[in-house]
Amino acid sequence: MFDLVCFSHLRWDFVFQRPQQLLTRCAKRHRVFFFEESVEGEGQARLESASGGQNVEVLTPVLPRGTTAEEAEHLYAALVGRALAERAVTDYVLWYYTPLAVFLAQVLSPLAVVYDCMDELSAFKGADPALLSREKELFANADVVFTGGHSLYEAKRGRHANVYLLPSSVDVHHFRRAREEQLDPPDQANLPHPRLGFCGVIDERMDLGLLEGVARARPDWQLVLVGPVAKLEEAELPRLPNIHYLGSKTYDRLPAYLAGWDVALLPFARNDATRFISPTKTPEYLAAGRPVVSTSIEDVVRTYGSRGLCAIADDVPSFVAACERAMAKDGRERRLQRVDQFLSAMSWDETWAFMERCVEAAMLANQEQLCSAGEGPLARGTPLSTAELLVGET
Fold first, then answer.
1. pTM above 0.85?
2. Secondary structure of residue 41 in the 3-state scheme
3. Which CATH number, 3.30.40.10, 3.60.15.10, 3.40.50.300, 3.40.50.2000, labels domain 172-343?
4. Which of 165, 206, 235, 259 pairs as cysteine with 153 (C-beta 3.0–4.6 A)?
5. What integer best gives the mean pLDDT of the chain?
6. Residues pairing with 244 in the sheet
7. Terminal Cα-to-Cα distance of the chain (whole angstroms)
């Protein structure tokens, strides 16, 4: 049995996606400690704790304003070391979503190191220049690497000997609720049909020009955008009477919104930030029973478009035409049968079960390697020595 210590660039309460889907399943058998990136605050360095659900503790380092990058790493490591010591965490796996925290692999002594690569973070707007070098270091330290899509797998598989392709899965039972009669949420209830919706983060990956073009081409259509806006200025967002920004919604409320849409959209731009994405929303939309129209994101085309499970279009006229076809009722039952057959092989439960087996195999291999080197069993109760020294220096 092991505890899982995760370092993530995403906030636990931001959007419920791959990390939350996997780690809540992990937490059924293991304690999960989810360390977020640090934030600035007043006073001395400290760690704020919150519950992320049963067996999941979310830990946010708060560092003094004006802390330098070097000081920040020192303090972050100290806070992590203290937290794990106080919680008697001795047998644990390090689980990375952000390569920027790779320095902790040198400070701590885990049973195994895992990199779940869900995005090409270095291509995102405002990315830390150190990401590429830190990722290289993480590949050197990792025992297992998982990739969240085909494009990422092809980009990363030559960089490590133990890389697995594990695309986004779906909680079919949760999103199938959208196929049943739902009470329309108050902020959506008064919008006329047809409604074309998107749920997810609204950021530089969104093709805002396409959205505005569709809205202008069909002013009778209501474009519903559910999710937080990130890394975009207010002036960048298209504002038209038929474009509606409803803000963030909790995961449990999403099926009610999807139930009221006539078409679900993936209007992503084709740029560096979307080159390797594999949107989790694609199978969720399909499980909800919505017809899907997407731009030509490679993983969407390969996995769904090529099987006729969603329509692909990139410019305004073709996107509008694809949405019109998607709203036609002909063949709905046949479409849902094909969707359900395809999604039956995609389960977060099965994905986590496979990951857990890979982690256990890596732990065993590490133990055997230590024994064959004559170092004996992996020492327990001592992995935090360096971190504890750092705590003493704060």
1. yes
2. strand
3. 3.40.50.2000
4. 165
5. 92
6. 224
7. 32
